[in-house]
Write a structure and sequence with these properties.
With about 120 residues, this protein is of the alpha+beta class. It contains 3 helices and 6 strands; from the N terminus they run E-H-H-E-E-E-E-H-E.
Length: about 120
């Protein structure tokens, strides 16, 4: 595989493990924390949409001018999967830190992928 010559952005794939399950159950709680993470990381929010699953769990997406945030939670496993794709000046590490604290995650795994060709 050839190295990427034209990089357009970075895609962060984040796993929050051993979270406080209560913080992952409710759509309003997850939405407020994800919006806070976008704001504090200096992302420019365009719109957002979130969905509450029954009995528990949330999926959501925030469209930002720099690209997007997305989240999917599995409270029964104390797990949340979070993606940040950015091709702009926002700071994904701040967003990750905000969510780590909000979800009380004991472990955070991050994979970063350069997007481009």
């Amino acid at each position: 595989m050839e190295p990427i010559k034209n990089t357009f952005g970075q895609h962060f794939l984040v796993e929050f493990l051993q979270c406080n399950a209560e913080t992952l159950k409710n759509v309003e709680t997850v939405k407020l924390n994800l919006l806070k993470s976008a704001q504090e990381s200096n992302a420019t929010i365009v719109s957002h949409h979130f969905h509450q699953f029954q009995p528990d769990g949330v999926s959501g997406v925030i469209l930002i001018e720099e690209s997007h945030f997305s989240i999917h939670t599995w409270p029964e496993h104390q797990y949340a999967a979070f993606d940040v794709f950015t091709c702009g000046p926002m700071d994904p590490n701040i967003a990750i830190d905000v969510l780590k604290q909000a979800f009380e995650a004991k472990t955070v795994n991050i994979k970063t992928i350069a997007r481009g060709f």
